[in-house]
Each structure stands twice: as structure tokens, then as C-alpha cells.
Amino acid sequence: MTRFEQELKNNVFVSSFCTRCDKHVWPPSDMCNSCFGNVIWRPVTRTAKLIEFSSKGDEVFGIVEFEGSIRVMGRIMTASALQIGQMLNLTECNFDGKAKFVLAPIV
Ligand SMILES: [Zn+2]
Question: Which of 2, 21, 47, 48 is the 20 to 30 Å CA partner of 8?
Fold first, then answer.
């Protein structure tokens, strides 16, 4: 299990970050994909912008973007209509064979 996956299991969302390039390395990796240097693991701000979404039955899934560059697919818990570009809170993350993200609109 990678550092990224271990942290997710504890409801902590971290990303690999290259201090030399000053950018997130995403998808998470032990090595920077630009300079091949070592990365550090940094907590990601738990607010995300909604990029797109779709619903399946009464479940809503969407692609959300953290810190302007990290895009993940997550489940969105909402009782009201969503709008592209609105901000969401990461309420829960987990790892269960794959990364799981649960978000809710900021009220
Ligand atoms: Zn780098």
C-alpha cells in the first residue's frame, strides 16, 4: 500500500509534491514526473471545485478539482441542484481497493 493509500484510509488526503518544481505530482508518485526528484507528502486543502457531474439513480458522481490541479472522481452527497464551478467540501476519503472520495456542497 502506498503512502497515499494509507493516509486515505485514515481519512487524510495527501498528495505528492515536488518542492523543486513547486507543483503537485499527480497521480501520486514517489518521484516527480518532471525532474525525477524525490517528493514530499503534503495534505491537500479539503475544498474542491466541481468540474462535472452526473447522476445514476439517486447517487451523484462528479469530477472535482483540488488546489487548481488535482482532479479526482467522487461521490457527491446533496439534496439540491449542483452547479458546475461550485465549491464542495471533502467530507470523507477512504481506500478500499481504490480511492474513495465523498463530497458535499459548502453551505
Ligand atoms: Zn520536480
Answer: 21
